[in-house]
Every structure is written in C-alpha cells, then in structure tokens.
Hints:
This protein is α+β, with helices and mostly antiparallel strands. The chain contains 2 helices and 7 strands. The protein has helices at residues 16-23, 119-147, and strands spanning 4-12, 40-41, 54-61, 64-76, 80-87, 92-102, 105-115.
Amino acid sequence: MRRFQFKSEQLLPRPLGTVFPFFSDPRNLQAITPPWLDFEITTKGSLEMHEGLLIDYRLRIHGIPLRWQSEITVWQPPHRFVDEQRRGPYRFWIHEHTFEAIGDSTRITDHVQYGVFGGVLVQRLFVGRDVAAIFTFRRAKLRQIFEGK
C-alpha cells in the first residue's frame, strides 16, 4: 500500500502557553475545519486529552456522509500529540502535531501520513487536493483566531 504525506507549518505570533491549550481542546477542531465538510464531534462527555482518548466525528466528503474515529496515541504537552484514525475514510491516517516556541511566537507543524482506497489515482484526483484545501483553510482560520486577520 502506498503511503502519502502532507506537511504544513505556520508561525503564530502568540506564545506556546497560549497556542497549545487551544489545540488541547478537541472541541476547537470544529472551528478550524472547513464548513464544506459539515464536521461535528459526536463523542459525548469529557474530551480531556490523554493517550488512548477516542474521539468520534461525523462529516461529509464530497457530499458523502461519513463517520470517523480517531485515537490520541501520543500526548506530550505542550510540544506534541498524535492522532490516528481507528475508523474512517482512509486506509490509515496518522497526524502528528508539533509545537515549538520561537521567542514569543509558536511554530505549529502538522505532518500527516495516510493511505487511500483507490491508490495513486484517487490521491491525485481527490484526496491530495482535499487535504491541501483543508490545511489552507486551517492556516487562514488560525491566523484569524490568533492574529485577528
């Protein structure tokens, strides 16, 4: 199976102590997810981040309703966490989030490794573009939240 990768970096002009808590609350994911995905967390109760936390979502990809479950497999506040798909639209999805203090700013790096059903053709026609668009939206939304732009 072919493994695809996507990487995104962004420098936010806020300290790590301000940026990381935003990402440590899974409910904030909805605010930085494009509206065209119709994304909703369906997990009930507490969503305090820790290794082993399972989070359930409902979303639409190209109008197709899907369910997704991810597990937090690494939790190293305030510098790193990893979520992995347990159920969902990908063959596998591993998303590593890292946070680095750069003076009074924070560098956020997202590194995603994933596999798709349909292989290279589906990756080129749909998935690669979709993943890039999602992270473009996310970067813009984070600028708005943390920079007021």
